[in-house]
């Protein structure tokens, strides 16, 4: 599996790493760990507007000075370019069957609103790209970031050609994704704080794999967040590196093609090895 990123992901959209966990150092560390990555290009406005309102897209392009878009989401003059690169690398990952290492993350972003560090919904833009430009009919998005993938869920809630699956700590921020919110193309797996590899394995056995197999996707896109790791500072889960490798491997087994997009993961010391573990699970040779 190819790794796709862009050098600017490690510089643009500075959030101030002493005060904000979603920092450009995340990508700097990852690019050091995977120096052979392929370079993606910025998504076009047309590709982004398949998912987001044009007025919202324009509002991100118009940011000229530092601003808090909500209590968690910081933006500056370079956010527009960073967010277009993140979406474009996700598109390239969908095209190549790769893993896009990007920031800002995307899975909380709504049609016309940023949320929770997210500006554009990278995985959703990649899903629409695959459908429109690659002719892929049915896409399943599996989100194992520790937070509920509420933005992705909302964007596809009325679309039976896209299955969204989210496993997440619950109750927890952002509060959505609790028990009982499910349909044939919308699956939530709320998990108690303290859950680890065995709970995630059981959830895949009993809920995720049966739902995805029933849906029979042509493509699985993984919203790969690593903040469910036992050493992540933002959440209270206990997943190990081996656990992420198994989650990736199980996702890859569910469709003829698989791609992944980075979401969260905020421990700068563990994140590169967790991505390496996931790449191994997806079937890549990774140098240690
Ligand atoms: Zn997260």
List keywords for this structure.
single chain, alpha/beta, eight-stranded parallel β-sheet, two-stranded antiparallel ribbon, globular, binds zinc ion
Overview of this protein structure:
This protein has an 8-stranded parallel beta sheet with strand order 2-1-5-10-9-6-7-8, sandwiched between helices. Strands 3-4 form a two-stranded antiparallel ribbon. The protein is built from 9 helices and 10 strands. With 288 residues, it is α/β, with parallel strands linked by helices. The site of zinc ion (ZN) has 7 residues, from loops.
Q: Which class best fits the helix and strand makeup? A: alpha/beta
Characterize the main sheet: 8 strands, parallel
Mean pLDDT: 96
Contiguous uncertain segments of 5+ residues: none
Named once each, the bound ligands are: zinc ion
Written as H for each helix and E for each strand, in order along the chain, the element string is EHEHHEEHEHEHEEHEHEH
Beta percentage is 5-15%
Strand order of the largest sheet: 2-1-5-10-9-6-7-8
Straight-line distance between termini: 16 Å
Instruction: Report the count of strand segments.
Output: 10
Helix content range of the residues, please?
A: 25-40%
Instruction: Give the helix tally.
Output: 9
- Mind telling me the C-alpha Rg? 17 Å
Shape field: globular
């Amino acid at each position: 599996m190819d790794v796709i990123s862009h050098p600017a992901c490690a510089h643009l959209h500075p959030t101030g790493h002493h005060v904000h966990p979603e920092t450009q150092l995340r990508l700097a560390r990852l690019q050091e760990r995977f120096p052979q990555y392929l370079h993606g290009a910025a998504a076009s406005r047309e590709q982004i507007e398949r998912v987001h309102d044009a007025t919202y897209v324009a509002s991100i392009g118009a940011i000229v000075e530092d601003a808090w878009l909500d209590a968690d989401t910081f933006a500056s003059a370079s956010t527009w370019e960073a967010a277009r690169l993140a979406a474009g690398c996700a598109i390239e990952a969908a095209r190549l069957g790769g893993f896009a290492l990007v920031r800002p993350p995307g899975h909380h972003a709504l049609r016309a609103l940023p949320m929770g560090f997210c500006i554009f919904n990278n995985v959703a833009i990649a899903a629409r790209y695959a459908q429109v430009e690659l002719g892929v009919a049915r896409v399943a998005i599996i989100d194992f970031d520790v937070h509920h993938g509420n933005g992705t869920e909302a964007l596809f809630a009325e679309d039976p050609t896209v299955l969204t699956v989210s496993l997440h700590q619950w109750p927890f921020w952002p509060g959505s994704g609790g028990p009982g919110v499910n349909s044939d193309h919308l699956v939530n797996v709320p998990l108690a704080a303290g859950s680890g590899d065995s709970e995630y394995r059981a959830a895949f056995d009993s809920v995720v794999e049966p739902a995805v197999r029933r849906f029979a996707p042509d493509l699985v896109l993984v919203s790969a967040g690593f903040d469910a790791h036992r050493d992540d500072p933002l959440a209270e889960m206990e997943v190990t590196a081996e656990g992420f490798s198994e989650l990736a491997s199980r996702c890859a087994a569910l469709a003829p093609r698989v791609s992944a997009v980075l979401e969260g993961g905020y421990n700068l010391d563990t994140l590169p090895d967790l991505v390496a573990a996931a790449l191994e699970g997806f079937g890549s040779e990774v140098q240690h």
